[in-house]
Task: inverse folding
């Protein structure tokens, strides 16, 4: 089954404690992306990757890092989380940035709370 | 620069009545436009996409949208709402040559029995 998986699904942490949210896709997609979703703001893109070792900033990259060492994985790293990073995070993948006929495939989301 | 405005944050309709979710976009170049749906506690799913072919685009679950360049609009419609249509809907734009998508703030659709 084609899918994008994220772990963990829920995370509560404290300010300053480094964390990583993993994202993996099994569709051999070249394009992967991270979004955060906040009430009234829709989804905002954090980082995206066109292929292995190729990453670029989205609209809200501050406080985040990513890496793309393998095609299937695209982890999101918060080196020093702050309360304003409390949000719902989605990973997405597709064959191209705009997606094919089915658009981008989204993961189930990770709800992060930073206290 | 690309941007998208969803004109209603909440829309409430009765089951069996038409649905209209409004979206206006801004784009310097030929845009691709999308509608995604998010059901409660779920990820997002593509409803339909416009990529400069036919201006009337048909999607899944009976939804369709019409691209109107003169009005810079891409409104989503459905002739008859079903209870299962209750969800949040996002209008999305991507300019030719850009590698990023820009999402609208979302419209929450309620369907009353």
Result:
């Amino acid at each position: 089954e084609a899918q994008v998986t994220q772990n963990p699904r829920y995370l509560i942490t404290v300010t300053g404690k480094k964390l990583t949210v993993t994202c993996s896709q099994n569709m051999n997609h070249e394009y992967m992306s991270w979004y955060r979703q906040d009430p009234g703001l829709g989804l905002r893109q954090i980082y995206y990757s066109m292929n292995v070792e190729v990453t670029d900033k989205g609209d809200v990259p501050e406080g985040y890092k990513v890496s793309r060492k393998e095609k299937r994985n695209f982890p999101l790293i918060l080196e020093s989380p702050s309360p304003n990073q409390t949000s719902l995070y989605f990973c997405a993948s597709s064959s191209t940035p705009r997606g094919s006929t089915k658009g981008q495939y989204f993961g189930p989301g990770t709800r992060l709370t930073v206290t | 620069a690309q941007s998208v405005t969803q004109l209603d944050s909440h829309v409430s309709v009765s089951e069996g009545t038409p649905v209209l979710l409004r979206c206006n976009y801004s784009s310097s170049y030929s845009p691709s436009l999308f509608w995604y749906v998010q059901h409660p506690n779920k990820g997002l799913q593509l409803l339909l996409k416009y990529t400069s072919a036919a201006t009337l685009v048909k999607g899944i679950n009976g939804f369709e949208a019409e691209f109107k360049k003169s009005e810079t609009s891409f409104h989503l419609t459905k002739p008859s709402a079903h209870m299962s249509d209750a969800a949040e809907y996002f209008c999305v734009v991507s300019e030719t040559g850009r590698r990023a998508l820009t999402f609208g703030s979302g419209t929450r659709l309620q369907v009353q029995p």
User: Anything to note?
Assistant: The first strand of chain B starts at residue 3 and ends at 6. Residues 39 and 73 of chain B are 24 Å apart (CA to CA).
